[in-house]
What does this fold into?
Amino acid sequence: MSLIQPTQIPFDDTRLATARAELLPALRAFLPEDAILARQEEVSPYECDGLSAYRQLPLLVVLPRTVEEVQRILRLCHEREVPVVARGAGTGLSGGALPLCDGIVLSLARFNRILDLNPDARTARVQPGVRNLAITEAASAHGLYYAPDPSSQIACTIGGNVAENSGGVHCLKYGLTVHNVLAVTVVTMAGELVELGSAALDSAGYDLLALYIGSEGMLGVTVEVTVKLMPVPERAQALLAAYDDVEKAGRAVGDIIAAGVIPAGLEMMDGPAIQAAEAFVHAGYPTDAAAILICELDGTNQEVSEQVMRVRELLLASGATEVRTSKDDAERLRFWKGRKAAFPAVGRLSPDYYCMDGTIPRRALPEVLRRTAELSEEYGLRVANVFHAGDGNLHPLILFDANRPGELERTEELGGRLLELCVEVGGTITGEHGVGIEKINQMCVQFSPEELRQFHAVKAAFDSKGLLNPGKGIPTPRRCSEYRQLPDRQHAHSH
Ligand SMILES: Cc1cc2nc3c(=O)[nH]c(=O)nc-3n(C[C@H](O)[C@H](O)[C@H](O)COP(=O)(O)OP(=O)(O)OC[C@H]3O[C@@H](n4cnc5c(N)ncnc54)[C@H](O)[C@@H]3O)c2cc1C
It folds into this structure.
């Protein structure tokens, strides 16, 4: 039984067609014609995000250009009780931007300007539809960059990053989105404009900025973001270590951090991921290895020289069969080339893949990798692992074929078991991709009913009618009780 997959409602359903016809004139009263998409062929590109197993056509799509337009859209929807799903680039992997059949999609694609870049204060004020990489491209002229670097950074937007509290390779040392955003301007569902955070280190009252970052488009619509910029380090160097055993590689990760070294990035790929990446981009990876670690160190020349020597010793002591050190920037980038292309590379191995995202304490890495292999065997589904090892942020990629009857359901179930394994070893069901629709059942495993009540209370404080991205992120008590009663979930309990 799948509790996740919603039934798709047809676009021309009579009730929806009536609702669409009623809403359109009210939107046309203040939006130009090109800001409203109302035909099936126009809205179909918005039917899913990066989690394409789940699809639903929205009632309408709106593409406002100004903050005032966003306010008017939200006020109107608030008054008429129409649900709203905000959307950036649609690269999310947990179904966060999945539309609702009776709701509108509010695309921030036209909010794509960098409003101000201040090299002295090392900040940039940007609109939410600006791509993550575009911030670094603009800042590079001043020797600065924006640190959080999701693998999707060429496409994903800063508004989406704020909603998901996105991470990336460099977050081990430089933090997630929440550590790199100073302020956001938000329109609430009732159409009010509020500013959260400031340039100051601390602010009075509750830290609403921290609460808002990672709230998955459920508390407000971001219309402006102020980010911190970092100076580009003097030097960066990477090591690539090969292992004949995945668990040894897992242990090496803990050894590096325990030695007091904080790498700029510490990533791991297992055999299937190495082979797929090598076949795809020819990065020169050792294809006979059971696992590789890529460890990047950055800082001043002296710091990097010392740390490279220290990490090399640690890697060899942990049983690496080969350790390479990048001789120049071209080689460093080659080490990363396969890692950066790993998702699409693994995507070539089977008709479909499902990318999970959970976080565990680093010490549990060897055990979780072993049990992942056991579960992969039990379900008869191949799993490739490529992940932010330094953060303990796993990304098991389950390979499947959606055209084979029952395989998507088995994949979902295996994904759920892997997330619950993360909770069992003291971790959490999400690292950086959010809960969305994908992990909503596992929220019932991670949190108690009392804790979930607090989540609902926060949601209600921002969005009293529950119209912003409803059905995502926080399960209802009823959903949890149904999930807990599923026969193979009788063992599951919170914490
Ligand atoms: C190949 C690939 C690699 C990836 N690698 C990483 C990675 O390394 N690290 C990582 O963290 N993620 C990664 N992701 C996931 C994804 O790119 C991130 O979650 C990203 O932040 C989503 O941004 P987006 O603009 O595409 O948002 P969308 O997918 O459009 O939306 C995501 C969520 O944000 C909300 N939202 C979007 N814009 C706004 C706004 N202005 N106001 C309020 N809510 C809003 C939506 O409602 C939705 O809930 C990857 C995805 C892919 C496809």
The first strand starts at residue 36 and ends at 37. The two ends are 24 Å apart (CA to CA). The longest helix spans residues 407-424. Confidence is low (pLDDT under 50) at residues 491-495.
